[in-house]
Sequence to fold (372 residues):
Amino acid sequence: MDFGLFDTWNALYAGDTVPWDPAYAGGELLESEAYSKNFEQVDAVESMGWDYIWLGGGHFSRQASMDPQVLMLAAVIAARTKNIKIGSSIHRPLMKLEGEELSARALPHERYAFDNLMLDDPFQVAEQISIVDQVSQGRFIYGAGARSRGSEERRDYFFEFLEVMKQLWTEEHFSGFEGKYYNYPAFYEPYLSIPKPYQKPYPPMLLPVDSQESFVPMGRLGYRIAIGAGSSPHNIRGSQVLREDVQSYKNAWKEAGHPGEPTTVVRIPTLLADTKAEADSQSEDLMRLARQYYSGRAGIGSTDAGAASPDATAEVNLFGTAEEVVDKIEVLREAFSTDEIMFEVNWTSSVPRDIVMNTMRILTDKVIPNFK
Fold:
């Protein structure tokens, strides 16, 4: 199995309390200090020999995440590291169907972006991905999503966005694209081109599943998927149904004739301590803050695919001692055909930094070696 750090470039506040903590007394957001602390985590997973770092984030929500530009941050980390693979989890291109209205579940920062930002263009995104892949010398994985939950049309729109990029990467001279949502003429002159990725034909893609309806289409198209180990915040189906969904994905993959065995990446809240008493106490503190985070006290919460709600996390998590977590990973591997775990060691950005680093140490020393 492979193992990666899931990171949203977490914020840091003066006084070591976060805005959704009832004890918060207006501590200043320490942006420069937060960059230093987050780079310490990057350096740690590189030196500890982990396989991946996965970067998540979004526009205009700096209370917890300070990563509005996932591809830019990936390039910075690529230049800083030499071995670890770097994935976007997720890059979310802004896409808008004609007459589309944002879901009532959308949070204020999501609504502002939807209402006011320019749409993302597959040409420019393809150029950015190529640069990241070249800087990393082939260590980049493109994870992307488009909030297609419950909308077959929006899912098709997103898949067409990806198809435009694939054609740009694989054709020496772009021959033009005619689709339902995107139409581009061929390049006018032979010298016209975009940068090509280091990996051929292009970086691997990982798509987070944000609805039950997405499992079969992603299997049919041969995309690798990422899931939350429990249920997503607004689609609470339970772990047993999620297992059935993963099986449907695998069946669709095989029926479409794709080579190899379909596997899944699991993103899961993670907190370890040296003793059970410490793990229980720290997990209780985290769950208390996470419930505040999702309650709307700070206007945050999350609707990301794979983001675990408190109820889901209470059911499925990697909290405990090293021995307990090894057993839980074995269950995940059996239940979901998991070949990689995204450790979310600062779930909801509510974990003290010393506990984050201790969790990473225990994972490195006592958990990961059992699966290598």
About this structure: The first strand starts at residue 2 and ends at 7. The mean pLDDT is 90.
